[in-house]
Every structure is written in C-alpha cells, then in structure tokens.
Write a structure and sequence with these properties.
It is a single chain. The protein is 41% helix and 23% strand. The chain is built from 13 helices and 15 strands. The strands form four sheets. The chain has a five-stranded mixed beta sheet with strand order 3-2-1-7-8. A hairpin with an 8-residue loop joins strand 10 and strand 11 (191-194). The protein has helices spanning 40-46, 53-58, 85-107, 130-140, 152-160, 198-212, 220-230, 256-264, 267-279, 286-290, 305-317, 331-342, 345-355, and strands at 5-13, 17-22, 27-31, 34-37, 51-52, 63-66, 116-124, 146-151, 164-171, 176-182, 191-194, 241-246, 249-254, 293-296, 322-324. The protein has four domains: 5-32 and 74-158 and 330-355, ATPase, nucleotide binding domain (Nucleotidyltransferase, domain 5), CATH 3.30.420.40; 33-66, no CATH class; 161-196 and 266-324, 2-Layer Sandwich (Nucleotidyltransferase, domain 5); 198-264, Nucleotidyltransferase, domain 5 (2-Layer Sandwich). The structure holds adenosine-5'-triphosphate (ATP) and magnesium ion.
C-alpha cells in the first residue's frame, strides 16, 4: 500500500445503467447489460467472448443477454438462493461489468493504471438486505482493492453537500430510493425504497398502448426509448405522436394521454414514501424536509414531475418544495467518489476486513 498510488472511484451499479466517476477525471457509464455470443458464428462476429452495454444491445440477436441488476436481482431480492444458476450468472455478469468500468477508468489514467490501488465506494439501494450486501461485496472482490458501499440516496446527498434538512428521491429504473437527511449517517429508519420507478412507467405505457392500438406492433424497449425523448406530465404542450408499424408500415399514433398517465403512475407511491418518512420525524423539523425535496436519477428527467410531486405533497402533506439535481444520471456516482476521497484510511482497512 505504501508505494502504490490510490485511485478513488465512485460507482453506481444501476438497474439500467452503471456509472463510474473517478479521481483521474474519468466519468462514464455503460448500460447494465452483458452479452455472451450464442455460438461459434457469433463469437467470430465479435472476436471476443463478452460484449458490453450499447454494443450488446445493438447485437442482441447474436447474444445471450444478461441484466444482472434487473428486477432487483442482487440488489433487493430478499430470498436469494446463492446456489442457483441464475444467481451465479448474475454475479458473473455483474463482475464482468464492474471489471469493464474499472478498465475504462484505468485505460485513461495518465500513469497507465499501473502500480495503483483502486478504492471504490459502491452505491446500493437503501432496501438491500444483508444477503444483497454480501452479493455486492462478492462482485467487487478481486476487482477493487478496497470497497465500501453506501445507500444510493445517501451518496446523492453527500455529493450535493446536503447533509441536513434535505430529502432525497432517487428515481431509477428498478427502484425509487427515498432518504431523509438530518445531519448524521442515515439509518434504515431514514430510508424507504419503492418499486414503481422508470421500468414501471414503461410497463404502464406499453400496456395502455397495447389496449388502445391493437393493430400496431411494438416492444417495451421501443416505448421506453420514446418515453426518454418525450416524457412529459404537464398539461400544456403539443400532442405527442409515436410512429409504430401497422402491418409493416409506420403509422403515427397519438400517445399524449397515455404517456402522461404512465409518467404520473409513480407519483402516489413516491409521495406516500415521503409522507411516511416525514410523519415519523421530529415535528419541529418536518417543515425543513418538506421544503427541500431533491429529485435525482434518470426518472427525475420527466418534464413536469417536480410540479406534480409538489401538488401531490400539498394535497397530502400541506406543503412541498421540490427541486431537481443538475446531473441526474451522475449524482450517485459523483457522491460516491466524494465519499471515497473523504473516508479516512483507518476506515478502509476496517471495511476491507469486513468484506472478506
Ligand atoms: N429523459 C428521460 N425522461 C424520463 N425518464 C428517463 C429519461 N432518461 C432516462 N429515463 C429513465 O430513467 C431510468 C434510469 O435512470 P437511472 O440511470 O438513474 O437508473 P438506474 O440507476 O439504472 O436504476 P436503479 O437506481 O433503479 O438501479 C430508466 O427507467 C430510464 O428510462
Ligand atoms: Mg440508480
């Protein structure tokens, strides 16, 4: 350790994308997808045994695709069977993904990534059980030299310097993680995870369109992409049309009301989570939390969501002031990197031992 240079990395292993922010200035992400060539022809096509992120998505017909964090697997499943093939596959895919992210960070390192000690803070959902924590550590073993992991919304709060009187709502693909910050390290009582997040919006949108346009052909993935480019809750604005094939020919379909309904579908559970965490807090400080609700994560980019949550909060809680972070996709990894830098050396040793 004495002779090695330390590189700090903050990592947010997300259901839909995994983000890394690194001391040496590297900041990037990969969709959380790993593909293995299906046969010898596919292997020849890629010239390698494993394909990541966008490349995997583009060539998914030739690949066996794995999304290690999908549906909460590894992150929030309470009943993980550590001997099942699915679990082993998910761990393997997650390790490959993390290894690739670290490689990217080290490739760009001015010293060529040699003679370094890589120290990482991993973000995990607030709800993760002991078993999930074990899984996260297993993923990092042998890839990171030292590791600690923290809840995702806490990483966001830390990165923004919001350590007190703030309420973080991290809207991801698989989960919404809520956390109240009151000047100390948040405990389990300060956090709630709800399962209605970006993937749920896609599912609702898809189902509404399936019912309305029975002739059209489309997949969840197609409507998800469309959502990301057009998501809007506000009543104002033009009608929104999507082009979907009908008997092979692209036809324009009006999806204004369906997109709006789907995007709004996550709001009641979010506000219920906020309500629970505020109601159980010291009444003298409840107002401070209501005044400072911060939205982060990819899902926070839905236009009009901030307003919708405020209105719901006014109805349920009498008041609500909501803001959105500037870099929703990087907020977790940025915060994890800051934590990584700030943690004293003694702490790391202790955590390393615990990880074994
Ligand atoms: N412009 C946008 N409008 C609405 N939703 C968006 C937009 N861009 C991305 N999303 C959605 O944000 C979600 C991804 O956000 P993020 O990258 O924060 O999730 P994640 O960290 O991978 O998931 P999780 O935190 O649940 O593990 C996806 O559901 C995606 O469709
Ligand atoms: Mg996330």
């Amino acid at each position: 350790m004495v002779n090695k240079r330390v590189i700090n990395v903050g990592i947010d292993l997300g259901t839909s994308r995994s983000v890394i922010a690194c001391d040496n200035g590297v900041r990037t992400y990969l969709p959380s997808v790993v593909g293995y060539p299906k046969d010898a022809v596919a292997r020849k096509l890629f010239g390698k045994d494993i394909v990541f992120g966008d490349e995997a998505l583009k060539h998914r017909m030739s690949l066996e695709m794995h999304r290690p964090f999908d549906k909460g697997m590894l992150k929030i499943a309470q009943d993980l069977d550590e001997n099942s093939p699915e679990y082993k596959r998910a761990i393997e895919a997650a390790r490959a993904l993390l290894k690739r992210l670290i490689e990217i960070a080290l490739e760009a390192d001015p010293g060529g990534g040699s003679n370094v000690l890589v120290r990482g803070v991993l973000g995990a959902p607030a709800l993760a059980s002991r078993k999930n924590k074990k899984a996260m550590l297993e993923i990092a073993r042998g890839i990171l030299d030292d590791v600690m992991y923290v809840s995702e919304p806490f990483a966001v709060a830390y990165g923004l310097g919001l350590l007190t009187n703030a309420f973080i709502v991290d809207i991801g693909a698989g989960t919404v993680d809520l956390c109240r910050m009151h000047g100390t390290m948040p405990t389990d009582d300060d956090q709630i995870t709800t399962m209605k997040a970006g993937d749920y919006v896609d599912q609702v949108f898809y189902e509404l369109l399936t019912k309305k346009y029975t002739d059209a052909n489309f997949t969840v993935n197609m409507v998800k992409k469309f959502k990301e480019e057009n998501s809007n809750i506000s009543q104002r604005g033009d009608s929104i049309y999507i082009e979907l094939p009908v008997k092979g020919k692209p036809v324009k379909h009006d999806v204004t009301a369906e997109l709006r309904l789907a995007c709004k579908a996550i709001v009641p559970d979010i506000v219920e989570g906020i309500r629970k965490l505020i109601a159980s807090f010291d009444p003298e400080f409840q107002m401070h939390l209501k005044e400072n609700v911060i939205l982060a994560g990819g899902g926070s980019q839905i236009v009009g969501l901030k307003r919708e949550i405020e209105e719901f909060m006014i109805e349920k809680l009498g008041y609500g002031k909501v803001t959105t972070v500037e870099e929703p996709l990087y907020a977790g990894a940025n915060g994890a990197l800051m934590l990584c830098r700030d943690m004293p050396d003694e702490y790391w040793h202790e955590l390393k031992d615990r990880a074994k």
